Amino acid sequence: KISNMLWNYCRGIDHSVVEAVQETKSVGAEVNWGVRFNENKDADNFLVNLSREVSLRLQGCGLQGRTITLKVKTRRKGAGEPLKFMGCGDCETMSRSTTMTGATDNLVTLQRIARQLFAALHVDVKEVRGVGLKMSKLEHADLGRGAH
């Protein structure tokens, strides 16, 4: 069965049904390469910029979200330097999220909540190797406009 399918694909023949585009479930940004912080203000600046990127992506899609999730990768205890220069290497991943009553794409709100979630993880900033921020429970911006 698979060989027939591949034979057809090689000749540009595809009888599968074309389906509608799936609705976006989440919008976010994540960086797992080159993340190194020396002090808390470095991590704070990173969160500010990551929040800005997520806010811009939400606005670009015309969406707002109610649940914000912060994911942080930290170097596993006892792990050496990664093989890939500035890579994340052997890490543990942890995350925290919170759901708001109203949907938002507001930059200041995202920054404030991202900072709160990061503080709740109680991580040593020198061990951070990756950070991601994601908004879910999305709504069209015209429905949730004004909720911050």
TrEMBL record:
Alphabetical UniProt keywords: DNA damage, DNA repair, DNA synthesis, DNA-binding, Magnesium, Metal-binding, Nucleotidyltransferase, Nucleus, Transferase
Cell location: Nucleus
Main location as per UniProt: nucleus
GO MF, one example: metal ion binding
Alphabetized SUPFAM superfamilies for the sequence: Lesion bypass DNA polymerase (Y-family), little finger domain
DNA polymerase Y-family little finger domain ranges (all copies): 25-141
Matches recorded under InterPro entries: DNA_pol_Y-fam_lit_finger_sf, DNA_pol_Y-fam_little_finger
GO cellular component: nucleus
GO BP term, pick one: error-free translesion synthesis
The keyword DNA-binding is annotated on this UniProt entry: yes
Family: Belongs to the DNA polymerase type-Y family.
Family matches, as PANTHER family: DNA REPAIR PROTEIN REV1
Name of the featured protein: DNA repair protein REV1
